Amino acid sequence: MEHIAIDLGGMESQICVRSAEGTILRESRWKTRSLKGFLAKQPMSRVIVETCTEAFGVADQALALGHEVRVVPATLVRSLGVGSQSKKTDKRDARILSEVSTRIDLPSVHIPSELARKRKSMCGMREQLIGARTGLINSVRGWARGNGIKLQRGTTPTLPTRMRDACEEPPEFVERLLTSIDELTKQIVSATKELAQLVKEDPLLTRLTSCPGVGPITAVRFVAAIDDISRFPNAHKLESYLGLVPGEKQSGAKRHRLGITKAGSSALRRTLVQAAWATRRTKVISPITHWSLQIEQRRGKFVAIMAVTRKLAGILFALWRDGTVYQASRSANASL
To answer: How far is residue 219's CA from residue 224's CA, in Å, rounded to a whole number?
Structure first.
């Protein structure tokens, strides 16, 4: 089996092909958009790429053509020698990856399905809209405070109206921001409805939203990030993958427990934390909320919230694995 290492670039990529014995058979540059044509002409090989923007698209093409694929984590690539001694060129990087592949079976990150990547993009772009609106709102609020204008309390979407009422006729440079905020709000509402429609059409997403505090955004984020629940043998492995388990530092006989590792998807972890806070605001006290209040009395509110976040991840794992819906009668301390 040949080993094809590709150092991907936005326009062009560097290719290094080695035989199973490690001999370089070919080195060339290829337009990234035309890599499928190159791979189609190669015998069944192992294709090695580093995680980057283009990696999963190229991985899909290689898999469809019958090749083995390894998408190597960027953190591992550094330990293999890429960029060592301040020497980093596309040609050298491709050579190193192909040479290492001939000696060991390089580990690969999970290659998400096209549907999972689409859903992740939908959630991410909605967050970009929210971030853009937040930036504009902060600018408007800063201008108002600097000019002694006091706004009435209200929700975020009503800020432009409240500003116009307080200012009567805002300056043109402020009005431009208010108009942009109005338009971004419309787009955010549209994006949120799109995610809610996904939940209605997907039985799995519908089941996940039966869990307290979990809405359409959390459910879609969770399924998009996990993609295939069979990757995890139990809930603890999934919680570890999401960075929700405590870290550990050991030196000799001394052993210290640290905060959560924060590995994995920060976007999903942040969404799950928001879902944990949402469970505290529900009118009906669920077993999870009651359990978290007991933890809060001993360890404080923020430790309790992180415990709920980890518990929600475990419950969502169980609902997905077992094909069931959340049952409030089940003890919060039940084993998952």
So the answer is: 9
- Closest to 332 (Cα-Cα) out of 283, 279, 258, 281: 279
CA 156 remoteness from chain centre: 26
First to last CA, the chain: 42
Which residue, 136, 124, 127, is CA-closest to 181?
136
For residue 34, what is the DSSP state? G
Pick 2-103's CATH classification: 3.30.420.140, 3.30.70.1450, 1.10.10.60, 3.30.590.10. 3.30.420.140
Question: Measured between alpha carbons, how far is residue 225 from residues 17, 117, 171, 191, 258 in Å?
Answer: 32, 8, 44, 19, 25
Look at the alpha carbons of 268, 271, 276, 282 in this order and tell me if their dihedral is positive or negative: negative
The Cα–Cα gap between 313 and 276 comes to 10
> What would the two tokens of residue 288 be?
């999870």
Q: Measured between alpha carbons, how far is 196 from 217 in angstroms, rounded to an integer?
A: 8
At 218-263, the pLDDT tens digits run 999 999 999 999 999 999 999 999 999 988 777 777 777 778 889 8
If residue 17 lies in a helix (H) or strand (E), which one and from where to where?
Answer: strand 12-18
pTM: 0.89
Which token pair is 64?
Answer: 């469809």
Nearest to 171 by CA among 146, 195, 201: 146
The whole-angstrom separation of Cα 98 and Cα 121 is 31
* DSSP-based three-state secondary structure for 263: coil
Torsional sign, CA 50, 74, 237, 298:
negative
Distance of CA 250 to the CA centre of its chain: 30
Residue type, 123: C
- What confidence tens digit (pLDDT) does each residue in 129-180 have? 999 999 999 999 999 999 999 999 999 999 999 999 998 889 999 999 999 9
Place of tokens 């999972």: 116
Q: Quick count: other Cβ atoms within 10 Å of Cβ 70?
A: 21
